[in-house]
Amino acid sequence: MLEVRPEIAAMPGYHSPQVDVPIRLNTNESPFPPPQAFVNEFVDALASISWNRYPNRTADGLRAALSAHHEVPAESVFVANGSNEVLQTLLLTFAGPGRRVVVFEPGYQMHVQISKVVGSDVIVIDRNDDFTLDRDVVRSKLTEVDPHVVFVSSPNNPTGQCDDEELLDVILESTSGLLVVDEAYAEFGTWSAIDRALSSDRIVVSRTFSKTWSLAALRLGYLIGSPTVVEHLWTAVLPYHLDASKQLAGEIALNYTDEMNDRVARIISERDRVQTALSALGVRVSPSSANFILFSTGLDADVVWQRLLDHGVLVRNCSSWPRLAGWLRLTIGSEDENNAFLRGLESALETE
Ligand SMILES: *Cc1c(COP(=O)(O)O)cnc(C)c1O
To answer: What tens-digit pLDDT sequence spans the chain (352 residues)?
Structure first.
């Protein structure tokens, strides 16, 4: 009998409309392509792959490069197809059917979705109206739930804010499970939990090449944690999950750290400029430490979204997400794209 699991049947799935418009500022990608020298080096390197052989199963070259980049032991590094697969592997290893996962909302919806796909129960702790967290609420709720896994994103998507680093201690003190710090945007932010992850079995950090590294098309992410945790992840993940070309691409990309830092700096300066311009328009902004800005105009979000689209600018309409009625999310683009957005928004706010 064909019977879909009820958890899957109940799911809306992941929908980020990829509308064909000139200016796409909806999925937090980098507006800049990676350096041409990287592309050339990668294309040349493809010829050296033994295509008839399975790839290095534990991606040793790539992990050595990541270990050097972050100055962490290679046994503390796990790699997968995007940080989403890192998170899925974590959940298969530490959560799974009937176990409890805690998320804070508004937050990254894939944390909820992947948890449900692996059969876990998701418990939500709400953020305050300004998207901060109340420590006493966090402490008492976590003590009550006693979760197997807790997710924190820092900076948080979609709010763009960084929680206080001390939140991590509050979580660790109130639980006995695994704390996953999703650092997809950490290079734009103010702190990292990598040091903590190296000194505790109970905390791990996930990172991605999708945002800062201008390599969303590559689907490459990684984790930094204790060797014990990493060892278990290798057991749960499919054998040879990471293909040889991707391993090479990641390894080569890490030779272009200066170019990546340069891109990050340009985006941060644009972010701060756009943030100031939005405030000047009287728009409410969630202070961002990431490469995107969550904002609310006071008008109906569906209307503003459509008017921006009429100007050829696609942003993310978050108004149907938990606790985000009225909010839209702008990914920081190039200077020209950001100016087009600001012009579009100004006129969207003038139209009645
Ligand atoms: C974009 C994003 C990711 C996605 O990572 P991939 O490496 O592309 O799978 C993970 N976490 C958060 C919070 C994100 O916003």
So the answer is: 899 998 889 887 666 666 789 999 999 999 999 999 999 999 999 999 999 999 999 999 999 999 999 999 999 999 999 999 999 999 999 999 999 999 999 999 999 999 999 999 999 999 999 999 999 999 999 999 999 999 999 999 999 999 999 999 999 999 999 999 999 999 999 999 999 999 999 999 999 999 999 999 999 999 999 999 999 999 999 999 999 999 999 999 999 999 999 999 999 999 999 999 999 999 999 999 999 999 999 999 999 999 999 999 999 999 998 899 999 999 999 999 999 999 999 999 997 5
**CATH number for 27:** 3.90.1150.10
Residues in the chain: 352
Query: How far from 288 is each of 185, 331, 332, CA to CA, in Å?
Result: 11, 11, 11
CB 309 within 8 Å of CB 18:
no
> Is the C-beta atom of 82 inside 6 A of ligand 1?
yes
Q: Is 182 in the pocket of ligand 1 (CB under 6 A)?
A: yes
pTM above 0.90, yes or no: yes
Same domain, 95 and 239: yes
Q: Does residue 183 have its Cβ closer than 6 Å to ligand 1?
A: no
Closest ligand 1 atom to the C-alpha of 156? 13
Residues 45 and 114 occupy one common structural domain: yes
Range of the domain at 274: 6-33+258-350
Is 208 touching ligand 1 by the criterion CB < 6 Å? yes
Are both 248 and 277 inside the same structural domain?
no
CA distance 52 to 71: 34
DSSP 239: T
Q: How far apart are the first and last CA of the chain?
A: 55
Atom of ligand 1 nearest to the CA of 84: 9
